[in-house]
Amino acid sequence: MKNPLMPGYRLLLPIFVLLVVGFAGYSAGERSAMNAALTAASGPLIFSEPIVDSRVSIAIQQARTDFAAVVIGRSPIHAKRDRSIPLPADGGTAVFKAPGYTLTVVKSLVQLGGVDGYIYGPVIRFEEPTLSGNADSISRLSFYSRRALQELLGACRT
After folding, report:
1. Is the peptide bond before 99 cis (omega within 30 degrees of 0)?
2. Number of domains in the chain
3. Is residue 25 part of a domain?
4. Is 30 within a domain?
């Protein structure tokens, strides 16, 4: 039976469990930031129908958590570094793999309006049949001055 007040409710319970259990090793401030990032990141991953395939559902849940972690400057929680892919010489971009998706953490040196900095953020590419159609990825890339990115990444290591 569908719940019209909570579309995609079958996806919400496992995500709640991920928030409670998956963030257990983090401080209260980090958990709060990840919750906020996960809420903000949910924009590209909102469902009005329940997902039938449990493997796809798990991949999407884990991708959302990894996406949120990267947005706040943390390392991915579920995806692991793919060391078979050579590192690009661009400032620190790294590729991570998990069942059902690839996460690229873009950290690319740029200059914008005379300000040295980085393009930083997550790019998720799902394996088929999870994502099909005209789009091949979901991303949130932003410009950060060197100082701003150091603060974002450094705040997570203190």
Report:
1. no
2. 1
3. yes
4. yes
Collect all residues with Cβ–Cβ distance below 8 Å to 105 and sequence separation of at least 6.
Answer: 70, 76, 93, 94, 95, 96, 120, 121, 122, 123
99 with 89: CB under 8 angstroms? no
Enclosing domain of residue 143: 9-155
In a domain, 1, yes or no: no
Q: Is 83 exposed, middle or buried (0-12, 13-18, 19+ CB in 10 A)?
A: exposed
Grouping H, G, I as helix, E, B as strand and the rest as coil, residue 125 is strand
Does this model's pTM top 0.85?
Answer: no
Q: Is residue 28 part of a domain?
A: yes
Better-predicted residue by pLDDT, 83 or 103 = 103
> Residue 125 and residue 52: Cα distance in Å, rounded?
20
Give whole-number Cα distances, 147 to 47, 60, 139, 143, in Å.
37, 32, 22, 11
CA dihedral defined by 148, 151, 152, 155, rounded to 10 degrees? -170
User: What pLDDT score does 131 carry?
Assistant: 73
First to last CA, the chain: 46
